[in-house]
Amino acid sequence: MNPKLYRRPIAQRDSDVLADWSRWLADCRVDEAVAARARQRSLEQQACQESTITGVLLDLGERGRPVTVKTAGGRCCHGRIAAVGADFVLVCDDNDDRLLIPTASIATISTSAAQRRVTGARLRPSVVLAEVIHDLAADQARIKVTVAGECVSGLLTTAGADVIAVAVDQPQEDHLHVATAAIDHLVVLAR
Known about the structure:
Number of helices: 3
Strand order of the largest sheet: 5-1-2-3-4-10-6-7-8-9
Distance between the termini: 58 Å
Number of strands: 10
Structural class: alpha+beta
Number of domains: 3
CATH topology of the largest domain: SH3 type barrels
CATH architecture of the largest domain: Roll
Helix content: 25-40%
């Protein structure tokens, strides 16, 4: 209890000392409750001011509630956040597709209005998108990648420092090399 918040005791009169003390204690409790709400609002405001996109994704992922992530390329992904890395999010959509979305490609994140406020003040995870893509390439995963509004499906054959190679399903193209920085989102079709 904060001694600065308390009022001075009411001057005791012989008439009803107990009632005077009860009123004084009630006033002190009200003052303490007001101060506690002000502290809570201040802490929430500070957390919101320190928020990051990765922190928001972590907060929403921990809740396990559905979200809609819209990418800069216009794709809307509705589902649950399965994992968050330092520079990506993995969303499992309603069709059980696993979408890897670079955080740099995220335009908006929508949630239900019924959910409590998201602060997003968190430390960044250590796993980066390049590591996940390297693991997928080692497994020769079947992917669908969207770059500059174009979707390409195929086998992820290699992953370099800033480029991936996809053996395209269409017969007219053999391999397509994609700059990882240009990826709007990547769907893991099979691993």
